[in-house]
Amino acid sequence: MIVFDLVCADGEHRFEGWFGSSEDYADQQARGLLDCPICGSTNIAKAVMAPSLGRKGNQEPVAANPVEQGTEAPGASKPVSNEVAVPAEYREMLGKLVKAQAEMLAKSEWVGDKFADRARDIHYGDAEEKPIHGTASQEEVSDLAEEGIAALPLPLPVIPPESKN
After folding, report:
1. 3-state secondary structure of 91
2. I need a labelling partner for 15 at 20 to 30 A (CA). Which of 43, 76, 82, 155 fits?
3. Phi and psi torsions of 3, nearest 5°
4. For residue 12, is it left (φ>0), alpha (ψ between -120 and 50) or beta?
5. Is 90 exceeded by the pLDDT of residue 143?
6. CA of 157: how far to CAs of 2, 15, 37, 39, in Å?
7. Strand 109-112 relative to strand 132-134: parallel, antiparallel, unpaired?
């Protein structure tokens, strides 16, 4: 997997995209499959990213544990580490969100890019009513909403079953 920082040109929103390779990113962008999770724009490009460079051989490694918020070196006015301290209540809240989404996904069916079609089938009684999850473009979600069919984004990204190792 490769992670790119992406940005939408319309709203200048920055977000991450995970891809199997650079070619996967290029293919999805060429087919118009990338959209901004904030504004829905499909005008997406790679954002400028800092390169990941290893430390020099004569440098000491950075401490493995992040510094607690407010911890300072003696006589210094800045924290000891550049790492951001994440409050325990945020970690706990994120953990609960991860658990809730995992439980929900375990009880629903992955329908991939057929989400809009399957949602319509269920809504109009042409398919068994059951929870589903998958992918849909902003246009497909808008069309579903116009038909009175609720479709909500998942709070956390989901790796499609066929992409898992």
Report:
1. helix
2. 82
3. -110, 125
4. left
5. yes
6. 15, 12, 10, 16
7. parallel
pLDDT digits (tens, 9 = 90+) for 54-112: 666 666 655 444 444 444 444 444 444 445 567 888 888 888 988 898 898 889 999 99
User: What residue has token string 């006589």?
Assistant: 75
Q: Residue 9 carries which side chain, given as an amino acid letter?
A: A
Residue 11 pLDDT: 66
Say if CB 134 and CB 115 are below 8 A apart.
yes
111 exposed, middle or buried (CB, 10 Å; 0-12, 13-18, 19+)? middle
Dump pLDDT digits (tens) for 1-19.
788 888 887 767 888 888 8
How many residues are listed for the chain in this entry?
A: 165
Handedness of CA 151, 13, 86, 65 (dihedral sign): positive
Run of H or E residues at 7: strand 2-8
Cα–Cα distance for residue pair 51/47, rounded to 1 Å: 12
- Type of residue found at 84: V
